[in-house]
Amino acid sequence: MSTATSLQPGTLLQQREIYLSILKDLTIMDDIFMRNVLKDSACTEYILKVIMDQDNLKLKDQILQADYKNLQGRSSILDCIALDNSGRKYNIEFQNADSGASLKRARYHGSLVDANTLETGQVPNELPDTYIIFITENDTLGCNLPICHINRTIEENCQQCHDQLHIIYVNSSFQDDTTLGRLMHDLHCSDPHDMHSEILAQRVLELKETQKGVDIMCDKLNELIVEERNEGILIGEAQGILHTQKETAKNLQHMGMALEQISLALNVSVQMIQEWFSADCVPVK
Q1: Pfam families, per this entry (predicted)?
Q2: What are the sequence ranges of the domains in the chain?
Q3: Residue 15 and residue 187: Cα distance in Å, rounded?
Q4: Tens digits of per-residue pLDDT, 220-239?
Q5: C-alpha angle with apex 59: 196 to 112, nearest 5 degrees?
Q6: Which terminus of the chain has fewer CB atoms gathered within 10 Å of its CB, N or C?
């Protein structure tokens, strides 16, 4: 079986038109777009300033798609690891699915960050203040609050336990006229001209409306689709082409693509994709 090298059969112009259609609807909450927006560290810094409510916060360094391993060697890819000038460390995660933002996952991320922070010879007391920040599409915790700060306490006297691990959940469905609410609006906004933050708008505009940015995103989309289709081909050789398309469709939806975009990518009708998702109990966006 031949290896997939493009989105679907057709000319390069047709492929590019499909990529442009997908790109137009992407937001910072979509994994593939978030990775490229945050390559401009000023965007990461702005997001942290708003969530931490600290205008003087300065970003020192960041790693995107950090590959962290636990003591057993299990690998996890974290969206963004950031360090500010005061030595505080952050793990920022953008989660569209509630299942990927459970409290136990936040706890696990905290352990991964700690395990990958200390160098040889350092002791636990040298661990920095660490913030695990989950920006969720829905009210994952069910608190009906725009932001929830979670810190350990001593049960007997209700005093805070200063272990310097802090977990923050930000509910991006709250998009009111506050600084935090306006940021949440921007994270879900596909049009840079409708965004509140000049910093985020400039970066989104660069990726969507300049030749350089559009070329970068088209290349990234092509890489994503090729990777998903190639993985699907391996499955398809053993289990059939239909299973290949179903698995690819589910993976693309998990990465934030709408039904119409998946239909274009796989050259399959929207109705057929809906039937696949219904049969597998996959929520339809």
Answers
A1: PDDEXK_2 (PF12784)
A2: 12-24+211-279, 27-189
A3: 27
A4: 888 887 776 666 544 445 44
A5: 110
A6: N
Q: Which two tokens stand for residue 88?
A: 């505080």
33 vs 36, 116, 193, 255, CA distance in Å? 5, 26, 17, 10
